[in-house]
Every structure is written in C-alpha cells, then in structure tokens.
C-alpha cells in the first residue's frame, strides 16, 4: 500500500497570488501521458509549471542522485485513466486537488475526467469534433445536461484554446478541401447545406427536402410548380466573391432555372443553372434610388440534365472580371464596365430556385450552396464539393447577439464580464454574423454566421 500525503503550494507572484494544492502518492507514476519533462531543484517549482500549463493535471516526480528532481508533466490524471497509474519504486505521483472554500480567483484547480471531459474550477469542459450549426450545437449541449461554453476568466479561455489544438491536425492537410483553411478560412460568408439541417432556410409552395437516389442523401427538391426557398440576405456584391452550388436539373428543364438571386425591380443579381442551355450570372449596378446604371451578364457551358453538376460564379473586383465555372472548368468570362461597383440594397432575403419578377421556378435538386469572400480558382471551387469538409477557422462558444444586434450575452442570459475579441471584431460582416467562434489560430473570438458548421465546446456545472 503506497503512502498518500497532501502538499500545499502557497501563493506566488507568477501565479497571480493564487494557491494550488497537490496530493502526493509514493511509489507510483502515471504512464503514457507525459507532455513535458523538466528538471529543477525542488518539486514546488515543477508544481507551478504544471499549474501554469493549461493541459497539465498531474506530474511524476523522481529525485536524482545530485539532489535535483526530474518532473514529468502529464496531460491526464488517475481520475481519467486509473489503469495507467503503475507501480514505480522511487517515484512520486502528484495530482492537483481541490481546496475547500476557495474561489477560482484564489485557487487553481483542474482535472482530467473520463470520456474527455475536463474540470477547471467549478466548470466542466468538453470539445466535440462533430460539426454543427450554432443552434444545433447548443441543442446538443443542452441534451446532455449542459450548454455551449461561457467564458468568464482568462484561464478558462486559455484552457479552451488548448483544447482546440486537438482539431488542428484535421485541418492542416495540404490536399483536398482541408487546404482551403489557408485559402478562405473565415471568409465563408454564407453556407447552406440544403439537406434539412439549415435553420435559416424557409420553404414555400411545396419545396421540400427529398432523398436523391444517386446520393442516398437528402437535398432541396423543387418541383417546377412554383416551389422555392429563401435564405437571409447576405451582403456580398460589393466585394470579390465566389457563389457556388451543386445542381441536378430534371426533365423537362425549366428555362430560366434560377439557382440563387433576387430578381425583382430593382433587380440585384441572379445565378442561373439553365438559360437557353447555358449557365448564366448577372448582377447590376444601380444608384441609391434604384436606377439602372450598368451590369455584368455572363453565359457559358452546357449544363447536364438528370446528372449532378457543380456551378460557380466568380467576381474578382480587383481585376474587374467575372467568371463562370462548370464542374471546376472555366466556361465563360467577362470584363466589368469601367468603375463597376454594385450597390447593396437592404433586402431581407434572397431566393433559391426562383426568378421573382416572373415567378419562374426550377425543377430539380440543389445542395451545398456557398458564398465565399474570395475570387477562387476552378481547382479551389472543386475542393469545396465535399459536404463533410467545410473549411473552418474556429469552434463555437456560447456568446451571441441573436436577440439584439450588438448586445452580446451568454446562453444563460448573463452579461459579458471577460472578452477576448480578435482585432476589429465583432464586425457583423455582411450583416449576417450573430454567433461567436473561438479562433483555432490564437484563441481570440470572432463573430460568424450561425449557420456555419463548426466543432463546439460544451460546459456543465460541477
């Protein structure tokens, strides 16, 4: 039977005058969890290194013949992994312990728990890698007795940021859509999967989600009999952008078959899958009163019928040039008029599958509609085709301004007492960003479209 004793490490300036407590067990060590090995003159110095390392929860200490100690810092504890606590003569196992009647501002306490949960103070954290919209993520957290993470102190933010390091390898690849993280990152302005999971897509006149036989997955189905859908309006026409979607037209094909747009006086833009056998993209520049000034109208390619195809429209504002792509291949290009600078109108929604001025609707399926704030190449567009590999730059936390624009609250309604915004954030870009992600790159916060699918952080109260 090994000896268990208690060690108190008293306040030090380096720790912000907070106390930390360790429980020491003689003759045992935790294996397979060492993240760092340090050497020092006494265990107390190792203890403060563990306390200051967000994902250190315990340490193995062994005294050397010269009187110094070597300390192995562990990213787990016997609480989470009892089976890896092994006999080790000459070793001591030190684990952080809770101090009674001591607030989080006064004392440091954290622990690794079973099933990848972690405790920091009185709060339990867990990172979920499944990708969900903000609303779906919150519903999931609530279903397991918690909520999306609220962050009230710097140490909580640092800890959450360290958890995000677990997902970095999943996005750091150099092939496929994973490389889009470095190309577009946060520049996904709007993304609708059109599979029944989008919370901000409205269906009208029989539009529905239907399983499409060639994919064995649901997509938005429009029957050509006045069925259509809408998304919230997103401001993107005044910048460089890429508009991309997957389409399957059904016979008899309707002309025009609109993918996405708003086309009713004053006309704004329309992206058309089929207009006289061609892809088409048109957008107009109007004055503040809605008067027509000039436009871009580009057509090209021969879209297939009864087969899925990828259609993309690109506007490069810097080069004053528009492009059409069909299955990643450029099929049309057009220079813009001199000084072309489209005006954004304050519409509240855009149409899927509808040319509004004549009530023309398409017949067929649509899925994976995306708007990107970049003029992408054909190769980059094709990389975006995989539903399961949406580029992302962060993970959801609970902060949002869904009730009142600019008034941020945590899910329980509490006010913000600690902030970690990225420079120039929040900016409500495109008037479409009401939820907050923690950035994987640096742990700062950034407002984003609530419809993006991201990993997410849940919390429970201990």
From TrEMBL:
Give the range the annotation lists for the signal sequence: 1-16
PANTHER family annotated for this entry? MANNOSE, PHOSPHOLIPASE, LECTIN RECEPTOR RELATED
- A Pfam family (short name) is Lectin_C
Q: Which UniProt keywords apply?
A: Disulfide bond, Signal
Provide the species name. Answer: Pocillopora meandrina
Q: Which InterPro entries match?
A: C-type_lectin-like (IPR001304), C-type_lectin-like/link_sf (IPR016186), C-type_lectin/snaclec_domain (IPR050111), C-type_lectin_CS (IPR018378), ConA-like_dom_sf (IPR013320), CTDL_fold (IPR016187)
- Please give the superkingdom of this protein's source: Eukaryota
Q: What name does this protein carry?
A: C-type lectin domain-containing protein
**Family annotation (SUPFAM superfamilies):** C-type lectin-like, Concanavalin A-like lectins/glucanases
Occurrences of domain C-type lectin (ranges): 369-459
């Amino acid at each position: 039977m090994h000896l268990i004793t208690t060690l108190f490490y008293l306040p030090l300036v380096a720790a912000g005058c907070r106390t930390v407590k360790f429980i020491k067990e003689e003759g045992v060590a935790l294996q397979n969890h060492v993240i760092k090995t340090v050497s020092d003159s006494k265990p107390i110095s190792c203890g403060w290194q563990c306390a200051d390392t967000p994902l250190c929860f315990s340490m193995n200490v062994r005294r050397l013949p010269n009187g110094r100690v070597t300390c192995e810092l562990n990213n787990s504890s016997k609480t989470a992994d009892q089976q890896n606590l092994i006999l080790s003569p000459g070793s001591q196992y030190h684990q952080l312990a809770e101090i009674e009647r001591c607030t989080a501002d006064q004392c440091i306490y954290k622990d690794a728990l079973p099933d990848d949960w972690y405790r920091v103070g009185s709060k339990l954290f867990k990172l979920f890698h499944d990708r969900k919209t903000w609303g779906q993520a919150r519903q999931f957290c609530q279903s397991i007795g918690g909520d999306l993470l609220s962050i009230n102190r710097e140490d909580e933010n640092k800890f959450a940021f360290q958890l995000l390091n677990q997902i970095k390898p999943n996005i750091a690849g150099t092939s496929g859509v994973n490389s889009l993280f470095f190309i577009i990152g946060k520049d996904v302005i709007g993304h609708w999967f059109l599979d029944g999971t989008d919370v901000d897509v409205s269906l009208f006149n029989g539009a529905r989600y239907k399983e499409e036989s060639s994919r064995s997955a649901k997509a938005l189905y429009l029957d050509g009999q006045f069925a259509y859908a809408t998304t919230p309006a997103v401001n993107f026409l005044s910048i460089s952008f890429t508009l991309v979607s997957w389409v399957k037209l059904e016979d008899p094909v309707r002309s025009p078959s609109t993918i996405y747009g708003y086309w009713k006086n004053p006309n704004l833009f329309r992206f058309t899958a089929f207009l006289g056998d061609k892809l088409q993209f048109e957008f107009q520049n109007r004055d503040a009163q809605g008067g027509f000034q000039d436009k871009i109208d580009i057509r090209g390619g021969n879209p297939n019928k009864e087969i899925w195809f990828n259609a993309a429209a690109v506007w490069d504002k810097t080069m004053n040039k528009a492009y059409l792509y069909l299955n990643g291949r450029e099929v049309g290009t057009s220079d813009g008029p001199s000084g072309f600078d489209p005006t954004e109108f304050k519409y509240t929604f855009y149409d899927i599958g509808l040319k509004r001025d004549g009530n023309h609707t398409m017949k067929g399926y649509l899925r994976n509609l995306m708007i990107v704030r970049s003029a992408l190449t054909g190769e980059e567009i094709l990389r975006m085709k995989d539903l399961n590999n949406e580029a992302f730059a962060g993970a959801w936390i609970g902060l949002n301004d869904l009730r009142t624009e600019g008034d941020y609250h945590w899910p329980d309604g509490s006010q913000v007492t600690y902030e970690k915004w990225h420079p120039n954030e929040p900016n409500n870009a495109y008037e479409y960003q009401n939820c907050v992600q923690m950035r994987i790159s640096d742990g700062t916060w950034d407002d984003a479209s609530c419809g993006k699918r991201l990993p997410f952080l849940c919390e429970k109260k201990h």
